[in-house]
Amino acid sequence: DAGVIQSPRHEVTEMGQEVTLRCKPISGHDYLFWYRQTMMRGLELLIYFNNNVPIDDSGMPEDRFSAKMPNASFSTLKIQPSEPRDSAVYFCASSSWREDTGELFFGEGSRLTVL
Amino acid sequence: KQEVTQIPAALSVPEGENLVLNCSFTDSAIYNLQWFRQDPGKGLTSLLLIQSSQREQTSGRLNASLDKSSGRSTLYIAASQPGDSATYLCAVEYGNKLVFGAGTILRVKS
């Protein structure tokens, strides 16, 4: 398997624009997580899904953030409208509780810069 | 509140030294604990996972221990190499949610 795949790797946009980040989890994994990493706050869990269903979105900072998982192989994180304070690296991660011990596998991240 | 603390925040050692990274957590009702490595501009790579019922895990030159009762874990790196330079993060799992420490930035000098 190619691992967790995220796109785009880098995104530079202007304040107010819509941003969509994409993630393809490892095939067979039934959990998908979205994290945000900043220097100030470290790694923060935004939301996670189990079997495509959102389980806990308490980490989503504002209504401007939304996430979907229409099928087992694809998820999106959308920010609309974006603000400069949203600038961060957004990571997607997946794991499987059926097949192993729940080890978490991360994508390479999407670095977002909002001007 | 579930918090994870890593000490030291940064560490610089000469090549060949053995070193220990520390992780402490406030809530001992953990499911498991993972150590990750992050290289600059990259994602996180899982190094070791210790289940709550386990005391330690080993992989090559790495050994991680877990003491739930005291809320501590250590990552031991033997015979450090310049390629070990990276940020090491400890993450504690509570009911499907991982809580991360801020990480230890390790530099191994050749």
What is the chain-wise order of helices and strands of chain B?
EEEEEEEEEEE
* Alpha-beta content class of chain B: mainly beta
Number of strands of chain A: 11
* Rg over alpha carbons of chain B: 13 Å
The geometry of chain A reads as globular
Biggest interface, residues from each chain: A-B, 22 and 23 residues
DSSP strand content of chain A: over 45%
Q: With helices defined by DSSP (H or I, 4 residues minimum), what is the helix count of chain B?
A: 0
Query: Percent of residues of chain A in helical segments?
Result: under 10%
Question: Mean pLDDT of chain A, rounded to whole units?
Answer: 93
Question: What is the count of DSSP helices of chain A, taking H or I runs of 4+ residues?
Answer: 0
Helical amount among residues of chain B, as a percent range? under 10%
Q: What structural class do helix, strand and pairing data of chain A support?
A: mainly beta
**Major sheet of chain A, described briefly?**
7 strands, mixed
The N- and C-terminal alpha carbons of chain A lie at a distance of: 36 Å
Kindly, what is the distance between the CA atoms of the first and last residues of chain B, rounded to a whole number of angstroms?
Answer: 41 Å
Shape of chain B: globular
Poorly predicted regions of chain A = none
Describe this structure in words.
The complex is a heterodimer of chains A (115) and B (110). Chain A is mostly beta strands and 115 residues long. Helix content of chain A is 0%, strand content 54%. In chain A, the strands form two sheets. In chain A, strands 2, 4, 5, 6, 9, 10 and 11 form a seven-stranded mixed β-sheet that branches. In chain A, strands 1-3-8-7 form a four-stranded antiparallel β-sheet, with no helix packed on it. Chain A starts with a strand and ends with a strand. Chain B has 110 residues and is mainly beta. Chain B has no helices and eleven strands. Chain B has strands at residues 4-7, 10-14, 19-25, 32-38, 44-51, 56-59, 62-67, 72-77, 86-94, 97-100, 104-109. Chain A binds chain B through residues 4, 31, 33, 42-43, 45, 48, 50, 55-56, 91, 93, 101-109, 111, and chain B through 31-32, 34, 36, 41-46, 49, 51, 89, 91, 93, 96-103.
